[in-house]
Specification:
single chain; Aspartate Aminotransferase, domain 1; Aspartate Aminotransferase, domain 2; 2 domains; globular; EC 2.6.1.9; PyrdxlP-dep_Trfase_small; amino-acid biosynthesis; pyridoxal phosphate
Length: 366
């Protein structure tokens, strides 16, 4: 007997595969999901515990207090901020709002895999624009745009490559797009840079009617397990997102934790400095293995994409398995067109030292 039949564009989706946490009696070091290895602010953890007693009540569906805190920190209008179940929820909703089956969505080759999934959920066609040296190429993006393109996604810094384009290039991209195309700037990793608005995206979202910036509490704030994200843009865009988003997207404890986390910018600054220190340390160690065919792609995030020889004993697959055997879970990326690369999240000083020791051991025995 035949059961329900899914829409054909749904069956074309390749399900998102999260980074492995490993298994076995000994808990491995998880460096596969770009999480904050230093955890969350003590203020956030305290607020999380205290808010648990209120879990029998529905949360504030508008996240009013959190929106005002976000707006105060970033100089925004709180009415032009929308919160969601991670920035993922917002990113996924956009093609359902602006695309019809057969329309196209453009994203950068070697970009975040949620973008093509979001496009296909709406029956839209995802189009990957070629990049250059693992970095977004504005001319290639503009050349990929078709008459039926409705959305362009750009992560800056990019995941999984870690590369970033300057604000002048973001502005050039926006200027080259039709006014009916929504430019989505995914700034999930921007807090790892010193500037408050490193690529000018927040300013652009306040002045243009076709730009949306998304951010998350999952990375530097260390709240990935609570799923809190937000976006800002023109009132018309925010209004459409509010029309279709979940009525209570963020739980009571998660709201409390995010509200407290945003108050602890000293913790954010410390994590930024620690991340830079360990990222530079890991990049230097990979650089010393250049004679083995390894390269560290310059990164502005909390991870490094390490390219490996395409043949021989030190392929990306071999290195990925070798690190796993030594207790370090990383991300091998054949499904993203990077079969020759391993993405390594930045860990604590001890974890980074362990990865470096493991890489040295793998290469010495090859």
């Amino acid at each position: 007997m035949n059961g329900p039949t899914p829409n054909p564009w749904i069956t074309e989706i390749e399900a998102y595969k999260p980074g492995s946490a490993g298994s076995g009696a000994v808990k491995p070091v998880k460096l596969s999901s770009n999480e904050n290895p230093w955890g969350a602010s003590p203020l956030a953890l305290r607020a999380l515990a205290e808010a648990a007693d209120g879990s029998n009540r529905y949360p504030d569906g508008t996240a009013e207090k959190l929106r005002h805190k976000i707006a105060t920190l970033h100089g925004l209008n709180p009415e032009l901020v929308v919160c969601g179940t991670g920035s993922d929820e917002i990113l996924q909703l956009l093609p359902q709002i602006y695309c019809k089956p057969g329309d196209s969505v453009v994203y950068v080759n070697h970009g975040f895999m949620v973008y093509p999934i979001a496009a296909r959920r709406a029956g839209a066609v995802p189009l990957a624009a070629p990049d250059v040296d693992y970095t977004a190429d504005i001319d290639a993006i503009l050349a990929t745009v078709r008459p039926d393109t409705r959305i362009v996604y750009l992560a800056n810094p990019n995941n999984p490559t870690g590369t970033m384009i300057p604000g002048s290039e973001v502005a050039r991209l926006h200027a080259g797009l039709r006014h009916d195309i929504l430019l989505v700037l995914d700034q999930a990793y921007c807090e790892y840079l010193d500037e408050a608005d490193p690529d000018g995206g927040l300013a652009l979202a306040q002045s243009a009617n076709n730009v949306l910036v998304t951010r998350t509490f999952s990375k530097i704030y260390g709240l990935g397990g609570l799923r809190v994200g937000w976006a800002t843009g023109h009132a018309a865009i925010i209004g459409e997102i509010n029309r279709v988003r979940a009525p209570f997207p963020i739980s009571v404890p998660a709201l409390a934790a995010a509200e407290a986390a945003i108050d602890d910018q000293d913790f954010v600054a410390r994590c930024r400095a620690w991340n830079r220190e360990q990222r530079e340390r890991l990049a230097a160690a990979i650089g010393r293995l250049g004679n083995k065919g390894f390269t560290a792609v310059p990164s502005e995030g909390n991870f490094i994409l390490m390219t490996c020889p395409e043949t021989g004993p030190l392929t990306a697959e071999a290195v990925y398995k070798g690190l796993a055997a030594r207790g370090f879970m990383t991300r091998w990326l054949p499904g993203q067109g990077l079969p020759h690369a391993v993405r390594i999240s930045i860990g604590t000083a001890d974890e980074t030292g362990g990865v470096i020791e493991a890489l040295n051991d793998i290469t010495a025995s090859a």
